[in-house]
Amino acid sequence: MFSGYKQSQPFVWDILLSVESYLSKYENRDHALDRLVTWDAGDLHRLVVAFLGVRFPMALALNKSDLLSASENIKDVQEALPVHGAHVGVPMSAKEEMNYVWHHVKGSLHHEARKEVKEPTCVDKDHYAQDCDPPTNDAISSSSACGSSSLPDKMWECLSSALRLREPILVFPVSDMMTYEPLPGMDEAITKSVSLPNAGMIACLEAAGGEAPTLWDPMKRRYVTGSPNVSSDGRRAGEIHSKKEEARVTSLRDVLVLKPGSRVEDVFTVLKWMKVLGGEFVRAEGAGKIGDKPKLVKKDDLIGRHNRILKIMTTKRRNWQ
Asked: Domain of life, per the record (predicted)?
């Protein structure tokens, strides 16, 4: 189990000692690691749980919290945490979340229909439907009254809790370490990927107090390409001499989300899989934040805050120049 996940010896030893400490404290079994012949299936399961709790910590989505019988069960689960690798339990209701989504998806469809039939809609961004069904043709062409309630934010709370347990690594790939121009091949991924929020989801984001993705054009209602590092008069970040104006223009457009422990080679592999880069790895430069002097980074260097802005050079120069 440990070798399969390529865990270091110190990490494995910490897990073993924590299990031994537990057995000594709660079952009066001192030096349990020296007496493995006395272990049973329950002890082995406890070891696996201890490993999972550290290597793959979990946040539990306690669904159907709107049922009458749920409150007591949710209380019991939350009081038992952490257990079996789970550290957080968040009560939530899929029905409540989906009602909110359907309401604003319907609002997006109303917006499209209104362009042709010019009929009014009843979308109120501060409220959401309690019992809205999926939108139908009739719903698109006519207005409807919807109930209201507070914003359902348990999904966000659950995701936030999971991220806090094991924060991902953010990497910003660029083609130039001075102007921070994005890689040419990223245009396809950031405008046509099926994982991008659609118009209905963006309506939900905005109704919840958030903002649309940077490259979303609200007039064209689609994603558009473009570099953020260009001033209003067409000058690029490297051509601007005013520090104040340069700070306003210079930004990082693209980001990759990787798991903790990722290395420079992993970033290269992901970009090749996305067909953004091609050829073989030559070298890479990294920096921690905008304005930092770039430094050479090795292929097996861990990604962190000190080198999260990356320029990877390959044998196919057209991919990164």
From this structure: Eukaryota
Contact 83, 114 (CB under 8 A): no
**Could you report the per-residue pLDDT of 103-141, keeping only the tens digit for each?**
777 666 566 656 555 544 444 444 434 444 444 444 433
pTM comes to 0.60
pLDDT tens digits, 238-279: 454 455 444 444 578 888 999 888 999 999 999 999 889 989
| Three-state SS letters, the chain | CCCCCCCCHHHHHHHHHHHHHHHHHHHCCCCHHHCHHHCCHHHHHHHHHHHHHHHCCEEEEECCCCCCCHHHHHHHHHHHCCECCEEEEEECCHHHHHHHHHHHHHHHHHHHHHHHHCCCCCCCCCCCCCCCCCCCHHHHHCCCCCCCCCCCCHHHHHHHHHHHHCCCEEEEECCCCCCCCCCCCHHHHHHHCCCCCCHHHHHHHHHCCCCCCCCEECCCCEECCCCCCECCCCCEHHHCCCHHHHHHHCCCCCCEEECCCCEHHHHHHHHHHCCCCCCCEEEEEEECCCCCCCEEECCCCECCCCCCEEEEEECCHHHCC
The torsion region of residue 56 among left (phi > 0), alpha (psi -120 to 50) and beta comes to: beta
| Cα–Cα distance for residue pair 40/4, rounded to 1 Å | 23
208 compared with 111, residue with greater pLDDT = 208
* Cα–Cα distance for residue pair 184/273, rounded to 1 Å: 15
pLDDT-based confidence at residue 26 (cuts at 50, 70, 90): confident
Residues forming a β-bridge with 314: 281
